[in-house]
Design brief:
GO terms for molecular function: ATP binding; protein serine/threonine kinase activity. By secondary structure, the chain is an alpha+beta fold. 39% of the residues lie in helices and 12% in strands. It has two domains: 96-189, Phosphorylase Kinase, domain 1, CATH 3.30.200; 196-423, Transferase(Phosphotransferase) domain 1 (Transferase(Phosphotransferase), domain 1), CATH 1.10.510. The strands form three sheets. It has a six-stranded mixed beta sheet with strand order 1-5-6-4-3-2. It has a two-stranded antiparallel ribbon with strand order 7-10. Helix 7 (295-311) packs antiparallel against helix 10 (352-365). It is rod-shaped, with a radius of gyration of 41 Å.
């Protein structure tokens, strides 16, 4: 026979306890009946667990934690959904076409320490420029105001032109960012030696460019402009070439920047520009008259830049003759060497022939008749060979009337210099 116990409940769970047991294989009538008295009590009287303080406190705390976690999860999901939705709404078709990648506004805000005034390194027409470090690399962050239509046009021009250009003598555009209804942001390579303008007019004499450094800078700028005009699938007109838009990297290589006024079009097509835009003193006569821009208007601006760098004088200064008229007077007196910046003279390393050649080249580039100006390819060839091509030299002598009589050159900005500075309202594209 088998003796055992069972407490089967099927699929239900139940606790069973055996408090004691006895067994007999004899007749129960003889006095060997099972002992069923004085057994331990199974039921222990106690207070209900549901009424205990611990249970109440535990349930209350748990409920609060569940509610708090639910709110946090809901807030995170809603925020992610909102960011995803807003991101889709903000990204326009044009934003997907260009190489510079978009950088989050939070990241840009962090690298500039919240656009701290301590990080300001420059000022543009539509905003400030800040220094920052992005992914271990120093960058310049340009914040453009969206309050003016010019700001948006400048931003689009920079991204659509500089964003697709790559050349050693152009400032590199690393990326862009924007915060709706507040800021448009461009992130560039940081140029350790600042702008050419500061190296000419706002630095210690020890930092003034030597003749050799000056020629190197002019070659770099000319190379960058040539790339814009001929080296890409479209022809790009910079339209604002000037000393403050030429930046110098750690090796003193020139980088042309600020493409806020740039226009691009297919080669052999005329640019459809009709508004007078640019910087007074650097604008070609045809731009002042008609607003029409071309590669030759960039050549004119480069010519003014050459003369400005060599002479250490701005194109237009209050109370002084404009740069070109002043140079014409020196040429008339046969004293062209006096045009050279005294600080460059003090450093030496040049010849009279080199100075005259570069000044004459600047004059030819800035000639009033656009058809008489050389191309940037010819200009770069002159600078690289450090001598004037025979044909160019003949054109310069003829143009400036220096081959015989020392007459005052037929070159004068007086007719439009005043117009450019007072009567023209500069507008964006």
């Amino acid at each position: 026979m088998y003796v055992g116990f069972t407490g089967a409940t099927g699929k239900l769970v139940e606790g069973n306890k055996i408090l004691s047991w006895s067994f007999s294989n004899s007749n129960f009538s003889i006095g060997h009946a099972l002992v069923t008295t004085n057994l331990p009590s199974f039921v222990i009287p106690q207070e209900s667990v549901f009424r205990s303080n611990g249970f109440v406190i535990g349930v209350s705390v748990g409920a609060v934690l569940i509610v708090v976690c639910g709110i946090v999860i809901w807030a995170v999901l809603v925020r992610k959904k909102r960011e995803k939705t807003e991101g889709k709404e903000e990204i326009k078709d044009w934003e997907l076409q260009y190489w510079p990648h978009r950088i989050s506004y939070q990241e840009v805000y962090a690298v500039t320490m919240g656009f701290s005034e301590e990080n300001v390194i420059g000022f543009g027409a539509n905003g400030k420029v800040y220094k920052g470090v992005l992914l271990g690399v120093e960058v310049a962050v340009k914040r453009i105001s969206v309050e003016s239509e010019h700001g948006m046009r400048e931003f689009l021009a920079e991204v659509s032109s500089l964003g697709r250009l790559k050349h050693k003598n152009l400032v590199g555009l690393r990326g862009w960012s924007k915060k709706e209804k507040e800021n448009l942001i461009l992130i560039y390579d940081y140029m350790e030696n600042g702008s050419l303008d500061k190296r000419i007019f706002d630095c210690d004499e020890s930092l003034i460019l030597s003749w050799e450094e000056m020629i190197k800078v002019l070659k770099g700028v000319a190379s960058g402009i040539l790339y814009l005009h001929e080296g890409w699938e479209s022809e790009v007109l910079h339209r604002d070439i000037k000393a403050s838009n030429v930046l110098l990297d750690k090796d003193m290589n020139a980088r042309l920047g600020d493409f806020g006024l740039a226009r691009m079009h297919h080669h052999e097509e005329l640019a459809t520009t009709t508004q007078v835009i640019g910087t007074p003193g650097y604008m070609a006569p045809e731009v002042v008259r008609t607003g029409q821009a071309s590669t030759q208007t960039d050549v004119f601006s480069f010519g003014i830049l050459v003369l400005e760098v060599v002479c250490g004088r701005r194109p237009i200064e209050d109370g002084k003759p404009n740069l070109l008229d002043w140079l014409c007077m020196l040429i008339e007196r046969g004293d062209l060497l006096s045009a050279l910046d005294d600080r460059i003279k003090a450093k030496g390393g040049y010849s009279v022939e080199e100075v005259e050649g570069v000044v004459n080249l600047g004059f030819l580039c800035a000639y009033p008749d656009a058809n008489e100006r050389p191309t940037m390819r010819q200009v770069l060839k002159v600078l690289e060979e450090e001598r004037l091509d025979v044909n160019l030299l003949e054109r310069i002598e003829t143009t400036l009337k220096l081959s015989g009589s020392r007459e005052h050159p037929t070159f004068n900005l007086s007719s439009y210099a005043s117009l450019a500075t007072s009567d023209i309202i500069l507008e964006g594209r």
